């Protein structure tokens, strides 16, 4: 939203949204439109010209893992800071993004597998708890229209848990399975088992199960509305211009 005051106009961030007609993109457009310090200058989806984003300083991407790398490249090469919620980032993709940013100093990016504050806390608590338990497994549960499995959030949680276990000197988890129907034990992400559920009626949920001697701890997060992602997205839009290079994860903007 923009007022006619020239001082305020100078402070207003010009924002573009990619995936603007998608489930999350619609919510992001509404939130940007309602923010006093932002102007929605382009809302782009399939069939629209990406050139419309040239008017933006910051572009928010909630599209699809298959197209997000091309979108990112376009933004960085056009001097626009990307804020990316789209998932599908493995180590290879992240390295490519770092190389791209290194070749374009002055352009920064925020990529976060989850912009929900409670989801980020769930990941943080799981990382903190991981070193105290023999076993950790992750169950992510999502709506059946989700393109990727496991979820970006589950993948990142597994990496954080694995890092914490390594730092604590913990070895492999106990598991005597010798006979297995493929998939029955989930996907192995950095040594952590991740199980995916796709169920009508759900939005996005995750449980981190931790087990030790005679007790277990379950950390659960539930997304009830996609509007929950927008405060985190707006925070990243406000901060991306001042954070050189790649910021991976909203936790870095939350003083965690
Ligand atoms: N980081 C976070 O906090 C969150 C991340 N996500 C992630 O965000 C992504 C999008 O999720 P969701 O909104 O549910 O998905 P949707 O499929 O509802 O929305 C994606 C939108 O992007 C459009 N699109 C596809 N390709 C392009 C392109 N090249 N240019 C512009 N628009 C394009 C799609 O069009 P069409 O349908 O015609 O293909 C669709 O309208 C997923 O990767 C999801 O995992 C989701 C929620 C939170
Ligand atoms: O596709 C979704 O819906 C979501 N995607 C993100 C992910 O893969 O982690 C974030 C949240 O889980 C919703």
UniProtKB/TrEMBL annotation:
Q: Which domain of life is it from?
A: Bacteria
Annotated InterPro entries: DapB_C (IPR022663), DapB_N (IPR000846), DapB_N_CS (IPR022664), DHDPR_bac (IPR023940), NAD(P)-bd_dom_sf (IPR036291)
Keyword set for this entry? Amino-acid biosynthesis, Cytoplasm, Diaminopimelate biosynthesis, Lysine biosynthesis, NAD, NADP, Oxidoreductase
One GO CC term of this entry?
Answer: cytosol
Task: State the pathway, as annotated in the record.
Answer: Amino-acid biosynthesis; L-lysine biosynthesis via DAP pathway; (S)-tetrahydrodipicolinate from L-aspartate: step 4/4
All copies of domain Dihydrodipicolinate reductase C-terminal, residue ranges: 119-254
In UniProt terms, what function does this protein have?
Catalyzes the conversion of 4-hydroxy-tetrahydrodipicolinate (HTPA) to tetrahydrodipicolinate.
Question: Which one of the record's GO molecular function terms can you name?
Answer: NAD binding
This protein's name: 4-hydroxy-tetrahydrodipicolinate reductase
Xref: HAMAP family: DapB
Give the gene that encodes this protein.
Answer: dapB
Catalytic residues in the record: 142, 146
> PROSITE patterns, alphabetically?
DAPB
Q: Quaternary structure?
A: Homotetramer.
Annotated residues that bind NAD(+) are located at 19-24, 45, 85-87, 112-115
Indicate the family of this protein. Belongs to the DapB family.
Might you give the EC number(s) for this enzyme?
Answer: 1.17.1.8
| Reaction catalysis annotation | (S)-2,3,4,5-tetrahydrodipicolinate + NADP(+) + H2O = (2S,4S)-4-hydroxy-2,3,4,5-tetrahydrodipicolinate + NADPH + H(+); (S)-2,3,4,5-tetrahydrodipicolinate + NAD(+) + H2O = (2S,4S)-4-hydroxy-2,3,4,5-tetrahydrodipicolinate + NADH + H(+)
Compartments reported by the entry: Cytoplasm
A GO biological process of this protein is: diaminopimelate biosynthetic process
| Residues reported to bind (S)-2,3,4,5-tetrahydrodipicolinate | 143, 152-153
Give start and end of each Dihydrodipicolinate reductase N-terminal domain: 13-115
PANTHER family documented for this protein: 4-HYDROXY-TETRAHYDRODIPICOLINATE REDUCTASE 1, CHLOROPLASTIC-RELATED (PTHR20836:SF0), DIHYDRODIPICOLINATE REDUCTASE (PTHR20836)
């Amino acid at each position: 939203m923009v007022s006619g005051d020239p001082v305020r106009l100078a402070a207003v961030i010009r924002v573009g949204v990619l995936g603007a007609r998608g489930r999350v993109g619609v919510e992001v457009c509404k939130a940007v439109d309602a923010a006093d310090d932002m102007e929605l200058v382009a809302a782009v989806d399939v069939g629209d010209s990406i050139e419309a984003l040239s008017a933006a300083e910051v572009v928010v991407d909630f599209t699809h893992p298959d197209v997000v790398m091309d979108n990112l490249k376009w933004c960085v090469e056009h001097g626009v800071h990307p804020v990316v919620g789209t998932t599908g980032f493995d180590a290879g993709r992240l390295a490519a993004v770092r190389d791209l940013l290194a070749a374009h100093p002055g352009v920064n990016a925020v990529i976060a597998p989850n912009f929900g504050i409670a989801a980020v806390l769930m990941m943080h608590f799981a990382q903190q708890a991981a070193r105290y338990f023999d076993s950790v497994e992750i169950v992510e549960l999502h709506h059946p229209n989700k393109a990727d499995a496991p979820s970006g959030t589950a993948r990142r949680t597994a990496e954080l848990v694995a890092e914490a276990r390594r730092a604590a000197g913990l070895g492999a988890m106990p598991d005597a399975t010798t006979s297995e129907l493929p998939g029955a034990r989930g996907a192995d992400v950095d040594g952590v088992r991740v199980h995916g559920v796709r169920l009508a009626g759900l939005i996005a949920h995750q449980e981190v199960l931790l087990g030790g001697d005679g007790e277990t701890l379950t950390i659960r997060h539930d997304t009830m509305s996609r509007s929950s992602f927008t405060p985190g997205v707006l925070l990243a839009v406000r901060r991306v211009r001042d954070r050189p290079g790649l910021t991976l994860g909203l936790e870095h903007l939350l003083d965690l």
